[in-house]
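U., I forgot to send this yesterday:
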Amino acid sequence: MVSAIWCQTPLVDKSLLFPRRVDTSVTLEIVQRDSPCAVTQILKKSISRVWKLFYFHETMDPYIVFLKFSELILTRLLVVKKGMENVFTKSTAMLLVLILIWGASWPINKIAVPHSPPLLYAGLRALLGGILLTLIIWKTRKAINWRNNWKKYFIATFFNSILFFGLQTAGLLYLPGGLFSVLVYFQPILLGLFAWLLLGESLSPIRIIGLLLGFAGIVVVSVDGLTVHISAIGVTLGLLTAISWAFGVIYVKKISKEVDAFWMVAMQCIIGGISLLGLGSMFEDWSAIEWGRPQYQLGLVFGATIGIPLAYILYYKLVSAGEASKVGSSTFLIPIVAVLLGVIFLRETVTYRLIVGLVLVGLSIRFVNLQKKPQKKQKQGDGPVAS
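Result:
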């Protein structure tokens, strides 16, 4: 039962994770200076605090260090919000919900995958999510323009749905959801490199630093996966998922002016879901699905209702409101949320290498998404997917 998994004894004393008093003077000072890199400075300060934990408590459990690190970052981010005007704006609330949805998708899918063959699970989740999104946006069906766009839909589906959902679901069988999410979120880093190579987008020195940091983080996490979890297959599937996702986003960027964003997502999910179900029917057994398992039901319902339709509606509303750059610069929070939820609810393993790799990947995503001036309009299809 899911409830049995979620109601286990806490891993550590709560007093170690959430102290009564939090020193926020540095964060408030950053807000008062209106620094454009407040999040990066928050990370630096939090990392410094965690380093002190390493130095003064050499035998401290990695669980405590990671949870303390997460608490520091999230607390400081909330203090930044409190120091700004219009704290709970609609766009801020939408962004926080979006990050939580994408972060929660990994542990939820992790507990669901063992109760179904991976291709059938991925196909059902994508197909049901695509159908629900189609019903929501049905009034705009003229924007499908199937005769002119069907090839574009199928190419995008191959990378963003068939490969992404298929590899993602299979990979979760071999690695914890948190670790796998860190590997997959190498995608924003690959995206910067591929956009430079294939689309001719600029690659500034700060982005080059971000790419190098991301590569270092993935190396650290991959070594951790090979030595602790003993699954080269899982690490490989995670990186292949990131690569397929990056190529998919690059392609959607190229055709973004020719297709409707919502219908691109809906078509990818429907065509991809049917394709994955077809492959699953050939190589897997429908009778192996444990329909009555609460874990499986949770994963299927979450993906079909929240992970795909609601997440994309929130994302594109943020894009239309000019907040896409904020979404991009906040993607480093998603693997942190995924690892945090996996540790708390699923008792997933946390090591020092995973913490270091997570920090490096987070900083890398932040640097890769740094922009001198906010773009007036974000191209469609850039949003991270973790449904």
